[in-house]
Specification:
globular, disordered C terminus, Arc Repressor Mutant, subunit A, mainly alpha
Length: about 90
Amino acid sequence: MVKLSERELEVLRLLARGWLTSQIQAKLGISNLQVRTHISNMLQRLGLWNQVQLVIWAHAQEIVALQEIDYGQTERHGEGDSPGTGTETAGSDL
């Protein structure tokens, strides 16, 4: 099994919860390029093609549980680990 770094796991957990790369960047205090590099490195090592496959893999490996995903049913962009306002355009910050 491929071993991911702690930082990669942090990025993956947030990505799998529906966070955008710009939100992950702000949460972890790293650049957008670093977030995208972590995602790219994980994709390459795991032999995956895109972020959807990466998120599916994370769920299959039980890295993040389905119950942890915000489907837009909670207040967004407030306190806690809510990923966004819901007004972002999908893929706008990739």
